[in-house]
Amino acid sequence: MTSTRGPVRPDGTPIDTDAVRRKYLEERDKRLRADGNDQYLRLTGELAGYLADPYTPRVERAPKTDHVTVAFIGGGFAGLVTGARLTEAGVTGVRIVEKGGDFGGTWYWNRYPGAQCDTASLIYMPLLEETGHMPTEKYAHAPEILEHCQRIGKHFGLYDDALFHTEVTDLEWDAAASRWIVRTDRGDEFTAQFLAMGTGPLHVPKLPGIPGITSFRGHSFHTSRWDYDYTGGDPYGAPLDGLADKKVALIGTGATSVQAVPHLAGACAELYVFQRTPSSVDVRGNGPLDPEWFASIATPGWQQRWLENFTATQTGAGTGEDLVMDGWTDLARRMQASIRALPADELTPERIQAAFDDADVEKMEEIRARVDAVVADPATAEGLKAWYRQLCKRPCFHDEYLDAYNRPRTHLVHTDGKGVERITETAVVANGQAFDVDCIIYASGFEVGTDYTRRAGYDVTGRDGVRLSERWADGMRTLHGTYVHGFPNMFLVQPTQGANLISNVPHNLTESGRTIAAVIRHALDTGSCEVEVGAEAEQAWVDLLLTHPGTRMGGPDCTPGYYNNEGQDAGPRAKLNVGYPAGAAAYFTYLDGWRSSGEFEGLMFR
Ligand code: NDP
Q1: What's the structural domain count of the chain?
Q2: Quick check: CB of 120 below 6 Å from ligand 1?
Q3: pLDDT above 70 covers what percent of the chain?
Q4: Which PANTHER family match (predicted)?
Q5: Which of 540, 560, 583 is the C-terminal boundary of a domain?
Q6: Is-contact 19 125, C-beta < 8 A?
Q7: Residue 595 contacts by C-beta under 8 Å, 6 or more apart in sequence?
Q8: Closest-lying ligand 1 atom to the alpha carbon of residue 210
C-alpha cells in the first residue's frame, strides 16, 4: 500500500516541494560567507563601552576572603533554581556570583521594549508552584520575569550572600584542601567546597563587523543594554517619546528585533529596519491568564506535569494531550500526525524523514502566507518571507510585528542576504543607499559558536593543573553535561549533553539543579570531601552521545545562523554538542531514576 498525500496549503492546493527546496538552497547560498563566526566583533577595547550596565550603579565593597559551601557562577535561572534546590535540601553557605547588578541573567540585561518569553510562562518561569506565583499572561513580559527572578532570590534566601557586579577571573582546584579557589575582578579570593556554573548560552553581546562601525558619530547601543535615557519610555511599555524626532536604524531581524520593532515603529520619526535574513514569525496568541482557570489547574505537582507534558509533546513522546498548545507544539503535533498517517509498511526512516519535511513545508507555507495576509505592500511582504525550514533559525512568534511594516514611517531595508554594507559618521549604507540616522540600535545577538571558556570569561584549572579549555580541546566531555573528570566538586548547569531541550531551557535547568542539590546533599551526608565522575563513566556517556541520530535544528542545508555555526562545518567537536540520543523526555525519566536511586552511578564519592 502506498500513501499518496503530499504537502498541501490550507486551501488544499499542493505545494511544489522541489521548487521550495531549490529556493531554500538559493537563499542559503546568498548568505554563506567564509568568515562565519569571525564576521562578528567582540566588545572589547574601544567597543567595551557597549557592555556598560545602564540599569544599576556599581557599589564598592570589600573583597571576600572567606569559605563557602557552594559557589555558583551566574545569577540567572540556572543559579536561582540550583540555589533554590540547595536551600530546599538544607544546604547552607551558598554564594551566587553574578556580573549583573541583580539576579535575572538574560532577564536582567534584556529590558528592550516588548521583551517577553517565547515559551509559555507556565512552563518557562521556574519554581512557580514553590513561590506561589501566577503569571499574568500566557507569555509574560520581561519586567514580570525579572521580578520573578527576584522573588526566587528572596524566597530562598539567595540574596544574603550574593555578589553582584562581580566577574570571575579564575577558578582553581586546591587538591590539598579539596576545595575551589574563586578569584574575581573585585579582588575576591575565597574558597568553596563545591563549585557550580550556569553562565548561560547567550550572554555575550556581539556587534556585526560592518566596515566603519566605530566611525558613527550619532548615538548607538546594543539591545541588551537598552538606553531608556535616550529613547524615553520604560520596559513596562511606556511610549519611547525620546525618539519622536529621531531617525533610527535597527540592525538585525532576529527574535529580539521581532519583539522590539512594534514598539519602535510607532515612536520614531523614521524607523529603518535593516534585514539580512527574515525570521519566521508565527502566531503569538498572547493573552491574560484567568485566575479561576489557573486555580483549577494549579493542583499539587502541576508545574512538573506541565513541564513534562510540553517536553513529551514537543519531542514526539507525547500521548496526544497538549496542555500548552502553541507554535512550539504545533509543529511537533503536525509531524507526529504525518507519521501516524503512514501505513505500517511505509514506516521506514526515509518515509519518516519525508513526513517531517512535509509537515515542515506546510507550516512554513502558512507562515509565508501570513505575511501576505498582513503586510499591505507586496514588495515588503515578499522581503519578509522566510525561506528555510522552521528549525533552521530560531522560530519567532508575534501578532504585531508584521503589521508594524504597514506604518508609513517604518521601512524595511531588505538587503537580500547581503546585510549592511558600511557605516559612516552619519549614516547606515545598504543596497548602495545611505540612510542618515540619529541612532543605531544593534539587535545583532550574542556569541554562540565560540569556546565555552571564552564566553564564560574565565578558564577553570582542575586537578594536576589541567585547564577546562585543554580538557575540552577536542570537544566537550561530561557525564550528563554536568560532571567533568579531573574537575572534582564541579557542576555545570546547561542543556548540552543532557536533555538538550532548546525550546524550554528552564526545564533542563530545574532538573540539573534538583540533581546537583541531591549529589551535594549526599556528599555532605556521607562526609565526602570530594565527588567526581570516573573516567570510564564519562567515556561511556560520550560514547552514548556519539550514537545520536542527528538533530532537525540547523544543518548544512540551512541558511546560516547560530543554529548551524553560521553555515560552517564545526568539525568533529560539534558531534558532541548533542543531547541524550533517545530524546529529552527519555533523558528526564532516566535522570529521575539515576537521582532517586541514591547510587549516583558513575560518580565517585571520597
Ligand atoms: P540573533 O543572533 O538571532 O539576530 C541577529 C540579527 O542580526 C540577525 O537577523 C542577523 O542576520 C543580523 N545581522 C548580523 N549581521 C548583520 C549585518 N551585517 N547586516 C544586517 N543584519 C545583520 O540575535 P537576537 O538578539 O535577535 O536573538 C538571539 C537569541 O536570543 C534568539 O535566537 C533567542 O534564542 C534568544 N531570544 C529569546 C527571546 C525570547 O525567548 N523571548 C527574545 C529574544 C531573543 P542573519 O540572520 O542574516 O544572520
Answers
A1: 3
A2: no
A3: 99
A4: BLR3857 PROTEIN, L-ORNITHINE N(5)-MONOOXYGENASE-RELATED
A5: 540
A6: no
A7: 514, 515, 518
A8: 18
